[in-house]
Amino acid sequence: WQCFRALCCKGPPPPRPEYDLVCIGLSGSGKTSLLSQLCSESPENIVSTTGFSIKAVPFQNAILNVKELGGADNIRKYWSRYYQGSQGVIFVLDSASSEDDLETARNELHSALQHPQLCTLPFLILANHQDKPAARSIQEV
């Protein structure tokens, strides 16, 4: 009986660990598209994030709770209010953007890298839009 019980009555699977991440980058860099793709959502009707949104991105061994912060100029000054509790950072940049926008993204990245709540966390820097003709290589970015 014990052997049969062990085979059929395992119970629910153990809970997957959850990690809280913050996703930042300028408007139009592709943050929302990235998260929609990771959540297997339709790429249709993607609207730029105003303020912030939170998505739970499921993986086989973990769940990433990603707080995506809007990248508009008037919103970026509030990013730091949402950093607390983060365990990692995804920084998305448009590798095909103008030189001015790339410089702005560089400044925002450096600011995030130096922020007391983020400076010790792992960073993923994603050079998005590599499929566009104007895209810079990883070395150029």
UniProtKB/TrEMBL annotation:
GO terms for molecular function: GTP binding; GTPase activity; metal ion binding. InterPro entries: ARL15, P-loop_NTPase, Small_GTPase_ARF/SAR. Keywords: GTP-binding, Magnesium, Metal-binding, Nucleotide-binding. GTP binds at residues 25-32, 71, 128-131. Mg(2+) binds at residues 32, 49. PANTHER family: ADP-RIBOSYLATION FACTOR-LIKE PROTEIN 15 (PTHR46693:SF1). Belongs to the small GTPase superfamily. Arf family. This is ADP-ribosylation factor-like protein 15.
